[in-house]
Design a protein that fits this description.
By secondary structure, the chain is an alpha+beta fold. It is about 20% helix and about 25% strand.
């Protein structure tokens, strides 16, 4: 008997598994049962699994019978004319939604030409084997598989025109490309998902040359004049919020410019940007740690010791600009929360112009950071005076085998000169021969190469350079939001060591292995004071080896065990002192043996 499971739950057995599976499939095709049913007979485990639950990845396939697809030409005509709908095709069993489990036992043909009597289904379009992001890559069938994965991943990290109603939104953080363009080489998916209405990239002229070593290891050389004209510019928005909360006892926060007698008062300069209501007005420039919303809160613990003369029973809890960020107050939103508390949201806007270290990528997984912003007059140019926006290193092509990018450059050049968009859809895009023929007709070389002249000397370069247009994306990995350095700064309360992370102004930890690298490079002197971020000098009893304490009554440092005063000062890391304290708490006696310095 074969076990039968419904959504993972055992519901019974059958002695005719194949007949049962076929019957369920037939009922689904006749719309006797919903199209959400998927069934599979697992021969290895000898069970039948029926799935109807949500969250499964399902995709539509055309049914095939006797080597012929059930979707005929007349169906397509009726779809075009509006006499037939997608739902009706599913109800009639012409198209089926298949999940990953059921697909295991199917034989799917990519195209009608490849159909045989063995095939059970056919792709609606061969590009359907790709996901949304991957099918945005032009000419993907010419690339290696891993490059399509990289390209698809980076499409999701691209800065673009993410939403048309961005001025009305208060996203926590967002990026907006200033001058987005739709690609010259596009795919059918792009139109289907309406990405042409909110594009994420720019068409740039590129030349493939090794240039003075500045584009070594995938780095890009960018035309400074192109950047000044708007190439790769974007805005970064971050929203800060402040809420006037209520506390027990009828106390509540106040959104005001704090008085000088409030605990934690900063300085007059810190509040200089605020309006009378304690909120920064729009279009005011602010810098790191400037106050955006002035706020005071009641003290947490109202003990007797809290009433200090001349100081109010309030503490300063203003919202400030994050460390390392700056910008312009873009918009200020005043509202209320569900509890009726006043809510203030301030969005900061910062212009990000491409600089050394910013990350750019094509849709083919060819990523790189800006290695040099070169003056336009020094860049190579064609006889018509065209200078490239980006110089790309040709060494990145042979090892990655991204032939699709070379085709995109060729197609982009053809499209820009012919004034039309080119089709780079997987398995059905423009063919290389057609692109070459069009380029030849336009008066250019069919291989996309051109004679360039050295911008610095004016001499003609002996080698023809491959030049064309490719769609470049600016990624959200900007060097300005990753750059991090610190000398002195805040430390943690427990270990007295520097805090961790860029947002907390943290230190850069140098461990044992990093130390070994410095020594290996012969730079041992740079390690001086490198391992003493929590250095502390403590009194230690010479006899008991325990850390001494200060006796306030006697006014001297004494050993807590032998009450003696044979004390020596010992330097150690505060984390070690913490370990000693933890050992004591577990009733372990850590005895320090002291000796005189030589």
């Amino acid at each position: 008997m074969t076990d039968v499971f419904l959504n993972g739950k055992f519901i019974g057995t059958t002695d005719e598994p194949l007949e049962m599976v076929e019957e369920i499939k037939e009922k689904r095709r006749n719309s006797t049962i919903p199209s959400e049913f998927n069934v599979r007979h697992n021969k290895d485990e000898d069970n039948i699994r029926i799935n109807t639950d949500s969250g499964r990845v399902r995709r539509p396939l055309v049914r095939v019978e006797d080597g012929e697809p059930l979707l005929k030409e007349e169906h397509l005509k009726k779809l075009d004319e509006g006499d037939l709908t997608w739902s009706e095709l599913i109800e009639e069993g012409i198209i089926e939604w298949i999940d990953a489990a059921e697909e295991e036992d199917l034989i799917v043909a990519p195209t009608e030409e490849e159909l045989t009597d063995k095939h059970t289904h056919m792709e609606i379009h061969p590009a359907n084997i790709l996901g949304i992001n991957a099918s945005l890559v032009p000419f993907p069938e010419y690339n290696r598989g891993d490059r399509i994965s990289y390209g698809a991943k980076m499409i999701g990290q691209t800065l673009g025109f993410y939403s048309t109603n961005y001025p009305l939104r208060a996203d926590t953080k967002s990026n907006l490309l200033t001058y987005p363009q739709t690609p010259l080489v596009t795919t059918q998916t792009e139109e289907a998902v309406e990405l042409d209405k909110h594009p994420a990239g720019q068409n740039v002229v590129i030349a493939m040359i090794s240039y003075k070593g500045f584009n070594i290891e995938d780095a890009l050389i960018m035309n400074r004049r192109s950047v000044e004209r708007g190439l790769g510019r974007s805005y970064f928005f971050r929203t800060y919020s402040a809420e006037r909360q209520r506390y027990s006892g009828g106390q509540e926060d106040e959104i005001v410019i704090p008085d000088k007698d409030v605990r934690g008062y900063r300085s007059e300069e810190a509040y200089s940007h605020l309006a009378e209501d304690g909120i920064v007005p729009p279009e005011v420039e602010v810098e790191s740690r400037d106050v955006l919303v002035g706020k005071t809160s009641p003290l947490r613990f109202m003990g007797t010791g809290d009433f200090v003369t001349g100081i109010q029973n309030k503490r300063e809890t203003s919202v400030t600009v994050r460390h390392g960020e700056e910008g312009v107050a873009d918009k200020v939103l005043l509202s209320e929360t569900e509890d009726g508390n006043k809510l203030v949201k301030v969005t900061l806007r910062e212009l990000r112009i491409p600089e050394l270290g910013d990350k750019f990528a094509t849709r083919h997984g060819q990523k790189g950071v800006v290695g040099l912003l070169e003056e336009e007059e020094n860049m190579p140019f064609t006889r018509d005076g065209v200078t490239p926006d980006i110089i790309l290193n040709p060494h990145g092509i042979p090892s990655r085998q991204t032939v699709g990018q070379l085709l995109e450059i060729l197609a982009g050049k053809t499209g820009s000169l012919g004034g039309e968009k080119m089709d780079g859809t997987a398995f059905s895009g423009d063919k290389e021969e057609d692109l070459r023929e069009k380029l030849r007709d336009l008066g250019f070389r069919s291989d996309g190469k051109e004679v360039l002249y050295n911008g610095e000397t004016g001499e003609m370069m002996e080698t023809e350079i491959f030049q064309g247009i490719v769609y470049y994306e600016k990624l959200e990995h900007l060097v300005s939001s990753k750059l991090h350095a610190r000398s002195r700064g805040p430390v943690t309360l427990l270990t007295k060591q520097p805090t961790e992370g860029r947002a907390k102004e943290g230190g850069l930890r140098l461990g044992e292995m990093e130390k070994d690298c410095f020594i290996g490079h012969g730079a041992a002197m740079t390690l001086k004071e490198r391992f003493s971020s929590d250095k502390v000098t403590l009194p230690v009893c010479d006899k008991c080896g325990i850390i001494a304490v200060e006796d306030e009554n006697r006014g001297e440092v004494v050993c807590p065990m032998c009450k003696g005063s044979e004390i020596k000062d010992v330097s150690m890391g505060y984390a070690f002192k913490l370990l000693l304290d933890e050992l004591k708490s577990m009733v372990i006696y850590p005895k320090l043996e002291t000796e005189d310095e030589v």
